[in-house]
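Mods, move this if it's the wrong board.
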Amino acid sequence: MSIDIIATVGMCGSGKSVAGERLEGLGFAKVYFGGLTIGEVKRRGLDVNEKNERAVREELRRTHGMGAFAILSLPAIEFFLAGGRRVLIDGLYSFSEYKILKEKYGERLLVIAVFTPLSLRYERLSRREERPLTRAEAVSRDYSEIENIEKGGPIALADYTVVNGGTKEELVAGLNGILRRENVIGG
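Not the wrong board. C-alpha cells:
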C-alpha cells in the first residue's frame, strides 16, 4: 500500500511548518488544520492572536467534537486524493482526529511527529515573525493543547518522530530519511 497522506504532529513551534514545506516541495497538497482556526478568527473580524485562536479552536471542538478539524477537512483531503494528489495534513492536533483519519485511511496515512526540546521551542516561538509567543503564552498554549485537545495521543502513536534540535537543513535531512524508508522519495 502506498503512502497517500502524511500528517505532521507536534507541539507549537516544533518545526511542523518546515517539514510541511519539504513535503509541499515534493508535490503534496497541503491541508492546514490550523488554517481553519485562523480563517474563522478572521471571518469573525477578530485579531489573529493566541487568545482568539484558542477560543475559536476550543469552540469548534465543542460544536463539532474533538475530531472537528479532521471532520471539517475531509472534503479537502478527498478532493486532492480524487485528483491524484498526495496530501500533507499540516498540524494534526487531537487523538480523536488521529483515530478518524486512521480509520478512514489506514496504511495510506503516515503520521510523523516533529519534536523540539522545550527551551528551544520557546526561544524559536518568541523570535518567529508570524504570530510570535511570549514564554507565558507558549506555556499556556502547551498546557491547553495537552489538557483540552488531546495532543499527546497522536504524538505518542506517530509512525515516526524526527528530532528538530538543530538547523532547518538537519530537520529536512531527518525527514528525508523517513521518506526514503517509506519509499515516498527515492534513495
